[in-house]
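Structure ticket #2291
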Amino acid sequence: MTIRNLGTLLHPRAIAVIGGSRRAGALGTLVLDNIVAGGFAGPIVAVNPKRVDCDGVAWCSDIAGLPETVDLAVVVTPAATVPGIIAELGARGVKAAVVISAALQDEAARQAMLDAAKPHLLRIVGPNCLGMLMPHARLNASFAPRRATPGTLAFLSQSGALVTAMLDWAADKNVGFSGVVSVGDMVDVDLGDLIDVYAADPKTEAILLYVEGVTDPAKFLSAARAASRIKPVIAIKAGRSAAAGKAAMSHTGALAGAYDVYAAAFERAGIILVETLEGLFDAAQILCRYRPTCGDRLAIVTNGGGAGVLATDALPAAGGSLARLSEATITALDRDLPQGWSRANPIDVVGDARPDRFAVATRAALDDPGTDALLVVHCPTAVATGVEIATAVLAGLPPQRPNGKPVIACWMGGQNAASVRDLFTAAGIPLFDSLDDALGAFRHLRRATAARQALLRVPEGTTIAPADRDGARAIIAGARSDGRTVLSAVEAKALLQAYGIRTVPARFAPNADRVARACDGLAPPYAVKLVSPQLTHKSDVGGVALDIASPQEAATAAARMAVRIGRDHPAATISGFEISAMVDRRDKHELLIGIADDATFGPILAIGAGGKAVEILHDRALGLPPLDETLAREMIAATRIARLLDGYRDVPAADLTAVIAALNAVSAIAVDLPDILELDINPLLVDATGAIALDARVRISAEPAASRLVIRPYPAAWVADLVTRSGVAMHVRPVRPDDEALLADFFRRVSPEDLRFRFLTGLNEVGRDRLIAMTQIDYRRTMHFLALAPDGAVIASAMLASDPDRARSELAISVRADCKKQGVSWSLLQHVLRYAAAEGIASVESIESSDNHAALALEREAGFEVVPGDDYQELTVRRAISAA
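Resolution: structure written out below.
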């Protein structure tokens, strides 16, 4: 849906409990008691036909009697009453409702509830949920047995039981929340909506998710990707143990398990996926305290040599490396540590260490320029208590740690850790009682850092051969007109060729008698393969004959194959035979590249080891289209066979560029041709000279299909060549992620005054953080058009950033200093308005400096109107958009 009115959840003025009660054990009683006990500062109203007497709670018998200030309602009435209650709440002006009521399983009842809310823009959390807790508003609108303390974590869960478990853990660890929401059945408000809400919430430092499934995957990924750029998003996905394989024509379909598809989608969105509830807790503890900007060099201070060795052994798996101490640090520590200290990292302060040794070593390690983060490990001894050591360590840390270096504490043993937990909590330092958990937390911090860096990097451009899209669509249409949903091998290879993927030349023979003639023009030896819509895995049924020396032998092999198939598989139809020249496989690697159709995320790409044993090897990486060079390279690197592609012994390295091109071409097929449900290239033979597809299978939909992409591809349809009113020719196109340098050069040629107008602040140079935000955009939410001169330089920029609900978009336009007063702004603005209309954006706004007279005149001419406001230095102009 949208995020409209969802701010009410975080900051309600007054709350009503529909079904609030004083009956012992009633759900309405539990919820009402929790709200009162939480200390909510606003009015609380219980709505019940029977009188409710409760301190601090007003009572009214029906919704019509609610005060106008009530903007949030909690509904705990029987399911059958909910649609009517929602209609009454909406008419009364309530903006949001948390429907705890269960048993709303009937689709008609759910739709009736949504229909009742729609005219009033009333938002619904639930139904069938535990409720929500907003600690900063002192609101516990749930029937959870524990309250939440204020903090910086937002926890969004599809399981009410997980909410109570999280609250128990947080109470033990002194961790607080900015919000806890049990989302229930997500009939209206879903995870994507709430991610958007908490991404914009200044009190939230990290977002935790418990995910069973997503209802709107495109919105979910868009929201998560936007949030992950500014704060960590951590998720645990239920259902890992569910059967991954399913009946599928292609190897790719059989290999793409649902959990693994979620993992690939989460990675693309920058979500850190953890596998256990403990991992979620550990990630929460560290990521609510440190921003994900940590390097991998870890310093370790410990009084246990064995603990240091174990930490060192586990560090590579945590994505870290041992920091190398400088000579200056070692010399300084020589003065304060006993002769037997390690004189290296890990810094072993020796088992009889008293508090002063820990304090000196901790400060020295943290000050060392080669250290990115610090792990302090205390093993209990009789020399000093854990409290004494912790007090000294904390006293030695500067109030603002240098360079924001994270400090992780590990006080080994449950009692040892419990004795110092309050000390470390007050200091804002995460504490663990085992090395595994402490290093796991460091791993989460490193993964969050890597995820953020991946979202901010400049990718390589995508280079594939020009595609013959019309030819590919004609192949699909031809098969569909024949009533087939499986392309023949010849058709499948022709489709690959249309996208620049090199294939082995092949001929088709409708029967064994025509096989010899089909060999004409092909060099022996030959391969003969069965073509049957029922038997797609030909080698499994003896449908492949290799190394055939002559056309006559090829015909004989086909005839024998037909007899054998007719005997062993009488129900199978033999459409004919594919004949191709054999390819020398020496020193070649067999890869699989394919497309599978996922019920949630649409087309999924796969690459890995190919050949007959593909399911047994189970070596594959999954990804979502569209790809770029960097994403394709990373998918390949995630496979085990990637190490072989690098070359070994006397086998030269494979042509990785050719593999990347093939994977990008398959990605383009997934983007352009939604009719393709499954595609296998198996094997794709790769060596130092290039890549060639030996065999391919393609299954299409029975009817023309709409695109199911959850990540919007580059909007090439909005590339245009325009001529301004003064005759200036310019090429307008959406921005690409690799345009950062081009845009930086543009802004260097924008006047200082226009920079001020564009960013509404004094700005001498547009930094990389702004350039990244303007080039690496989510086309679902943002559009940025560049106008280029014939020499390829940018002469104008127009960025349109939409709210998640697309009710409004904010526009900013800049023109190069030497290109002003030539109609560039007008032509670019008209292009933007056409785009906004096509996208269904309700209104376009621009915030202008009141002295930017040229922009205000342009916008008035284009139909914008000034929106009244109190700020006379900045003016908001707005234009409603008519649907295209």
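Closing remark: Residues 435-456 form the longest helix (22 residues).
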